[in-house]
Amino acid sequence: MRIFDRALLRKRRDRAAASFAAHDFLVREAAERLADRLDDIRDRRFPMALDLGCHTGLLAGVLGQRGGVETLVQCDLSPAMATAAAGNGRPTLAADEEWLPFRPASFDLVLSCLSLHWVNDLPGTLVQIRRALKPDGLFVATLLGGDTLIELRRALLEAELEVEGGASPRVSPFAEVKDLGGLLQRAGFTLPVVDSDEIRVSYAEPMRLLADLRGMGESNAVAAQRKGLTRRATLASALARYPADDEGRRPATFHMLTMTGWAPA
Fold first, then answer.
1. H-helix or E-strand spanning residue 6
2. How does pLDDT run across 50-75, given as a tens digit for each residue?
3. Could you give the CA distance from residue 231 to residue 211 in angstroms, rounded to a whole number?
4. 3-state secondary structure of 44
5. pTM of the model
6. Residue in 238, 140, 145 with CA at minimum distance from that of residue 191
7. Strands 133-144, 92-94: parallel, antiparallel or unpaired by DSSP?
8. 24, 214 contact by CB (below 8 A)
9. Structural domains present in the chain
10. Residue 106, C-beta contacts closer than 8 angstroms, at least 6 positions apart
């Protein structure tokens, strides 16, 4: 199954690493929410934890000494992102979420912050994560869900149909709440919980949204997308169609899904 071009995703994350801090608001907010969830789990220590898809190490900085985490191993698909994350002094490696290089029962906790929505074989990755957990280990992950960037998707779809007479996938397909609980169970997790939330931001100009997506390494990496640059007329039509709120700003919705599951004791 090849939905996403993982090599292209790696290149885009490599390119985004140097200036990631200027565009990291979404990852930072998701990291804060993950840390808050760990704070709710009282009287539990996690001697060995994994940050899967660590970007430049934001989650490690947000966690600090919180959440009962003692040693945090950082891992990212992008070598440039991993190199930036390693600056915080924690053990770090570059590795693909689809091919985890860890022994069974290595971790007490696996966290993932806005990375798993780019995985081709999410069921297979969840099985690998469950195997990497020790018995009664915890998995918590936040990823982007189905209504993410709904405004941009509609504008691009309408513009392509008008200008080019057809549409290609310009924005990544995203998971739905109803799917993730079943995937956790299939992967062998117990007590699976999936919940959703929305983060809405707004821009004076929609081009700033596109710049933030590039700056986070979150530009379209769908393997079936039309090759080549977007036509100028298509982009102009999409920007003109992008909806504005009552104050004339352009809203952008990010649908956040959070999965929680435990490895069987």
1. helix 6-16
2. 999 999 999 999 998 788 899 999 99
3. 17
4. coil
5. 0.91
6. 140
7. unpaired
8. no
9. 6-149+173-201+253-262 (3.40.50.150)
10. 48, 50, 132, 133, 134
